[in-house]
Amino acid sequence: MFTCVNAASHMMRACVVICLTYTPSYADDTDVVRELDAFITQETERDAFSGTVLLAKGDEVIYSTARGLASKRFGVPNNLQTKFGLGSLNKTFTAFSVMQLVESGQIKLTDTLDQFLDETWLAHNARGQIQIQHLLTHASGLGSYFTDAFFASSKNNFRTLADFKPLVVNDTPEFPPGTSYRYSNNGMFLLGAVIEAVTGSSYFDYIEAHIIQPAGMANTGCFEMDEPVPNLAIGYTPAPENKSGWRTNIIIKPVKGGPAGGCYSTVEDLHRFARALTSFQFLNQLNTQMLYTPKPAFHSEPYGFGFKVAGTEHNRIVGHTGGFVGISAFMDIYLDKGYVAVALANYGGATRPVAAKIRELLE
Q1: 15-24, 31-40, 106-115, 161-170: least confident range
Q2: Percentage of the residues of the chain whose pLDDT score is greater than 90
Q3: Measured between alpha carbons, how far is 102 from 96 in angstroms, rounded to an integer?
Q4: What Cα–Cα distance (Å) separates residue 314 from each residue in 71, 320, 337, 338?
Q5: Distance between CA atoms of 89 and 259, rounded to whole angstroms?
């Protein structure tokens, strides 16, 4: 059943066009879909959610909806093909790419960073101690390039991975690599530089050729924001001091995302990625399972190789979240139950309640 409802409201309200699809695959899905739709409607009506949501069981999409505006300036509604910022969710692309190179024998998990990158990438002598697996599990001790220097810089300066070197090169590990956990954008970013060093290709070209195109993710990419990218959502954050009540995130984001986050995708494309991952299309079963197996040898956090791990022994949930000013995203893959849940929003933090509600309903 397909339903499209016009919701007349002022442009400042999030709900402009509500489009949803609903195809229950078995009895329990009916209540799940009904309650989920009611919750998203509630969030939209109070202007707390603007974005897209998809819930699938295997290959079958049992619910999808688009709410709110992709552009408040022009009154353009979101739709299911609208591209949203992923934040850190595309760390999964980076980890997946690294494991492809491990599988092909071009990288070993125990290789150290100094085998691929010189002191212009990381000056600290820890380069010889940080292993690939430490970077994948946030066990390197490194921090994040979102520093005062980043926010004081022109975001137009960041188009290639090498452009970020000044923000990364002087990072100092907080602890000996492999002994603890510290969520690290720098660590995942350096994995992108390793991919470039090993393959001779840019990070962006590599994921395009080895993930995006093979999985049929036609609306996914790391786009340059000074190009007119079709059907792309603008990120918004509340700004009570402005006449509109909102501020865009355009001038505070790098002009192009990278290995640690900042690329764009759709809920439909991320469902395709999840299905490609769990059907072992581009990576064998052993290496795929290594991505989402917790690594307690390095830390106590429920984190694998670029994938967050949640749920219980018989209801394992893997995936990632992403967030920035005007960006919120999550992808949950239910390994035992077969569901895939994805939500993308152009409001900061807006997908967190949706993720929690879906987990509650699917339990």
Answers
A1: 15-24
A2: 82
A3: 10
A4: 42, 19, 9, 12
A5: 10
3-state secondary structure of 331: strand
Identify which of 111, 105, 108, 104 has the alpha carbon closest to the alpha carbon of residue 128: 111
Phi, psi of 56 (to 5 degrees): -130, 155
H/E stretch holding 195 reads helix 185-199
Task: Report the number of secondary-structure helices (H) and strands (E) in the chain.
Answer: 10, 14
Cα separation of 94 and 273, whole Å?
13
Other Cβ atoms within 10 Å of 27 Cβ, number: 7
Output b/e per residue, 150-173; b: 16+ Cβ within 10 A. beeeebeebbebebbeebbeebeb
Reference 126, options 165, 81, 175; nearest CA is 175
Per-residue pLDDT band at 47 (split at 50, 70, 90): very high
Neighbours of 198 (CB within 10 A): 18
Provide the token pair at 235.
């990120």
Give the pLDDT of residue 300.
Answer: 64
CB within 8 Å of 259: residues ≥ 6 apart: 90, 91, 94, 161, 188, 189, 191, 192, 193, 195, 203
Residue 161: pLDDT over 50: yes
> In 3-state terms, the chain is what percent helix, strand and coil (to 5)?
35, 20, 45
Q: What would the mean pLDDT of 98-111 be, rounded to a whole number?
A: 98
Distant-in-sequence, close-in-space partners of 225: CB < 8 Å, separation ≥ 6: 250, 253, 255, 256
Q: Are 135 and 187 in contact (CB under 8 A)?
A: yes
Phi, psi of 252 (to 5 degrees): -110, -5
The more confidently predicted of residues 263 and 7 is: 263
Q: pLDDT tier at 233 (50, 70, 90 boundaries)?
A: very high
